[in-house]
Specification:
By secondary structure, the chain is an all-alpha fold. The longest helix is centred in the N-terminal third of the chain and has 73 residues. Helix 3 packs parallel to helix 5 and helix 6 packs antiparallel against helix 7. It contains 8 helices and no strands. About 80% of the residues lie in helices and about 0% in strands.
Length: about 190
């Protein structure tokens, strides 16, 4: 290697060292200028992370209380304290429990509270079961074929065979209630 090449190599090395020093000075200057903002941002990140962990723990605690209350209600359905605890810690599970107990009791008036819930599915199912318990055909988005079978049955009971056949024709052959529909169609032909 010639002297000229060695000088160029040394110049390049010094130049890169100067650039490194220059960027270190820029970084130090940036840090001194924005030090408060950097620490505020770090503190905000730590607080946000802590808040998220705290909220998750609080939510988990509420779910555990609701589950505990539900288990108490399974053992003793008359436990009003457990019912209140379930309602305060998990309103959706409370409404589902009220719906379940109302259907099991066979009393249509007990379905009023679940029918007034904010959950559209629970409203639909509550109104459907309320009609069924009152010996009426109920309409439901979730039990459409079963609703048709009930309408057909009530029509047959009232002697309206043509109306019953129309309802039963709307039920597809792959429906879970297709076998019941076939039996009712047969009864409508007599």
């Amino acid at each position: 290697m010639s002297l000229k090449d060695e000088l160029n190599y040394v110049k390049e090395e010094l130049s890169s060292d100067e650039k490194l020093l220059e960027s270190a000075f820029r970084l130090e200057k940036f840090y001194k200028k924005h030090r408060v903002k950097i620490f505020a941002l770090l503190a905000l990140v730590v607080v946000a992370f802590g808040a998220k962990l705290g909220y998750g723990a609080w939510k988990e605690h509420r779910l555990e209380l609701a589950n505990s209350a539900l288990l108490k209600l399974e053992k003793n359905p008359a436990d009003q304290a457990a019912l209140a605890e379930l309602k305060s810690n998990n309103p959706k599970l409370y409404m589902l429990y009220r719906y379940s107990t109302a259907v099991d009791s066979g009393k249509p008036q007990e379905l009023k509270e679940p029918a007034a819930s904010k959950d559209a599915r629970l409203q639909d199912l509550s109104r459907y079961h309320e009609a069924v318990l009152a010996m009426r055909a109920g309409d439901s988005r979730y039990y459409p074929d079963l609703s048709k079978v009930e309408k057909a049955y009530l029509a047959l009971k009232a002697g309206k065979k043509a109306e019953a056949r129309r309802e039963l024709e709307l039920i597809a052959e792959n429906s879970p209630v297709a076998s019941i529909a076939r039996l009712l169609r047969h009864a409508a032909l007599k």
